[in-house]
Amino acid sequence: MSITPPNIILHAADVHKNFGGLRALSDIDLQVEEGKTHAIIGPNGAGKSTLLNVIIGRIPPSSGAVIFDGTVLTGKAPYEINQLGISRVFQTPEIFPDLPVLHNVMAPAFARRDGAFRVNMLRSVGSEHEIREEAEAILDDIGLHGRREHHAGSLSRGDKRRLELAMCLIQRPRLLLLDEPTAGMSRHDTNTTIELLRKIKSSGMTKVIIEHDMHVVFSLADRISVLAQGRIIASGLPQEIKEDPRVQEAYLGGGVE
Amino acid sequence: MNVFLAQLLNGLDKGGAYALIALGLTLVFGTLGVVNFAHGALFMLGCFCAVTFRYLITLETVTVDPEKLSPWGAPVEIRTPLVQNWFGDFGAILVDYSVPISILLAVPVMLLIGIAMERGIIKHFYKRSHAEQILVTFGLAIVLQEIVKSFFGANPIPQPIPTDLRGAADIGVWFGMAPHVLTYPWWRLIYLLFSGLVIGGVFAFLQFTTFGMVVRAGMADRETVGLMGIDIDRRFTVVFGLAAVVAGVAGVMYTPLLAPNYHLGMDFLVLSFVVVVVGGMGSLSGAVAAGFLLGILQSFASMTEVKSLIPGIDQVIIYLVAVIILLVRPRGLMGRRGIMES
Amino acid sequence: MFSLSRKDLVALAVFSVVVLTMPIWLAPLGASYPGLMQKFAIYAIFAIGFNILFGLTGYLSFGHAAFLGVGSYTTVWAFKLLSMDVLPAMVFAVIVSGVFALVIGYFSLRRTGIYFSILTLAFAQMSYSLAYSVLTPITNGETGLLLARNDPRYLDAIFGAQADVAGLPQPTLIGNSVSGYTGFYLCAVILILAFYLSQKIFASPFGMALRGIKSNQTRMNYTGFNTRPYTLAAFVISGMFAGLAGALLSITDPLAGAERMKWTESGNVVLMTILGGVGTLFGPVIGAWLIKYFENIFSAINTNMLNNAFSFLPDGVQGFVVTVLSKFVGEGWQLTLGLMFVLIVVFLPGGLVEGFHRFMARLRRRKEAPERVSSTQPAE
Prior knowledge:
The structure holds three protein chains of three kinds.
Chain A: E1 8-19, E2 22-33, E3 37-41, H1 48-56, E4 63-68, E5 71-72, H2 78-83, E6 86-89, H3 101-114, H4 129-141, H5 157-169, E7 175-179, H6 187-201, E8 206-210, H7 214-220, E9 223-228, E10 231-236, H8 238-243, H9 245-252
Parallel strand pairs in A: 3-8, 3-9, 6-7, 7-8
Antiparallel strand pairs in A: 1-2, 1-4, 4-5, 9-10
Chain B: H1 2-32, H2 39-57, E1 60-69, E2 75-81, H3 82-87, H4 89-96, H5 98-101, H6 103-120, H7 130-152, E3 168-169, H8 171-174, E4 184-185, H9 186-208, H10 210-220, H11 222-227, H12 232-254, H13 264-279, H14 284-301, H15 304-309, H16 313-328
Antiparallel strand pairs in B: 1-2, 3-4
Helix pairs in contact in B: 1-9, 1-10, 1-12, 1-13, 1-14, 2-6, 2-7, 2-12, 2-13, 6-12, 9-10, 9-12, 10-12, 13-14, 13-16, 14-16
Chain C: H1 6-20, H2 22-25, H3 34-57, H4 65-81, H5 86-108, H6 113-132, H7 136-139, E1 145-146, H8 154-158, E2 172-173, E3 176-177, H9 180-203, H10 205-215, H11 217-222, H12 227-252, E4 255-256, H13 263-276, H14 283-300, H15 303-309, H16 315-326, H17 333-347, H18 351-376
Antiparallel strand pairs in C: 1-4, 2-3
Helix pairs in contact in C: 1-9, 3-9, 3-10, 3-12, 3-13, 3-14, 4-5, 4-12, 5-6, 5-12, 9-10, 9-12, 10-12, 13-14, 13-18, 14-17
């Protein structure tokens, strides 16, 4: 068992995951520094999504543990993990398609303020001015303010992804997990999203990004871990990763850019 | 031991009926993705095919013979079924065996009703929510049962067992027991065999025909089969017709065991849904297994010994089992993951 | 705390006026007698409560009649044991049905989709069967639970409010009889309260969370909501509404029978809600009123009335028309009900409220259309 250094907010320690006889993850030791953007890259089937699912508690690890700021996440329900301050953006956007865009953003704010369960029947959503203003400000940031009364299901795919990001951001999480946040986006949308993520970078929020797009990775990441065949084969600063021969062999296919 | 066997047998024929209804229900759900609350009504319509057939076949001519007088002096009315006039002794056999023979009427009629239902209404609901499917088929079930009620009235109409098949088989003797130790009514035995035959037939049809192969593939993965350029629509219609026929003949043969009334379908529907869910939504063998299982359990629960031990258990056993199975094994005995979960 | 948005206030005001003036506007429709209007109010409460569960969370319960029945039984027992006053009876009915809903909901809500529906159905059917058999000491079996002159009524005894009138004691509201119009106004006021409560829930963050569960349960979990207690709370609240409706049934007609727990009764409230419009405020009320109205009107028509109505037709035609129509009325009114449902689900999937909105939208578009034409003309 490795010791977690003080400035590490998320630590996946000795994580193994077997599916039947198949080893999906082995010997994972991932340390994410507070306030940094940490990218996890790797070829298809390397176990990136499995790792993310283990972190978020969707899949229990076969052995090892995930520790967030001194709390063991293993075995906790998704809502408990969120209440600790971890929000997640999915690969296919998980939003509330039947609710207005504004309410999509307000609901997570209520979860942040009121906790996992509270029968708040006496006040009305409309009279919650503070949360409403906050939600409108974020919608303004992502350019969806004009469509706040529309049903979220009617948004385009790119808008849905941005909305989901806003739903996570309004919770002001300590750790934001992003599963390919720009997959399927146009170049233009990708750049707007990068800008948005850069903007919140300064706010001190820790981010873990799983991404295919090297352009996105190298524009955002402070540190990069490379996953191949269920193992972390390299971890370091973007420049180090770019130059690491093992990485180039396993993933980048010799040379980036 | 004999008591045990007797109860087992008693449960089997009811289980056969449950299994037959649940089989069609599952078939429709698995291929068409439709929750059919009118399926019980199809069973009930089958029952009334038997009633109708018997009604038609026993239409009588009344002749008054002025020569003969009854003891109180009125002329005697002689009633002869028309078929007897036309076919003689064969007509008498027809009347006696009206229940099994009415299967010949039930098969085409139920097929037509099934196809009409699917083409007329159900096909528009493939893409709609389960709640809407439930609602429209529930409405349909009410319509069907009310139509039957307006023609046949509200009282149950008992159907006779053919004379030769009345009485009980001394099946204990077959297994080397002393006579009269283990008896079982012939008709129940026939129903059991019949349901086994129909179930076997449906499985064989699905297993050994190209059509059945496509249907099974459709149950496993509807979209892919659709993408393969196979005209699923027409096959769906046939599947629905088939399910209707299975429910119908199950009803026909059940009439001597339980005099049918117009709301019989609803009573069986609730139970069959429980059966389907216990067996596992979308699993044909699960539906059959659960049908027999619940029939047998119900029979055991209605034993006096059991009832005195746990009062009221006979009333609730099926639901109790459903609750326990759903809580312990959420997807039923043989269900696949993720079906109808949301 | 008790405030509503302006739109909701207007809705509540309109609703209150509509409910309280029922005796006036129902008169031309031939439905303004207290017994029927009480039913309108009671079933509307039942449907409003059901809609809080089904409309907001999307969990389709097929066993809500159980809570209606429990409310009825509790009320009659409160009359027998405590007092003929309706207030303690209602309070107890709501509490007991709430506890009952808590237990059933705790188990049923472990599953979703049709599995949840079947679980609730199974629990309700068990209650129904047990009410007829083992629980006869509590439910009085097929006869139904009735009041008796020599019931103890401990609370009444303490306060010395023993009625010495001949015959059975009647339920009272602080000493006033609640038969006839008083009974209707009692139900009406409670209906308005129920509607207000449902407005509050719809507009509240709690209601929003319930809608979120219907829309995307996964997102709710990953957003930090513990969805189980939310659905359970909705289940219990809607069970309490059903219990209250059951209580009012027994208050306006002091007896309780197991047939109120039958699954067809559960099916009825589903139909009312969907007919009017799931997840809307007015929908369930409209659905309940329509079904109860048609049930009453259609089932009261008999062949004689039809013969009179069509007497202007030639004899043969009249006979034919009357024969056909008689299948749809009186005993056969259920046939009309079934047809109505099929037609509405086929042609008006969102229920009447959505149909109305769509109709209004089309009207508006038609009104706007000519203007648009004129404004584009100069550009050509």
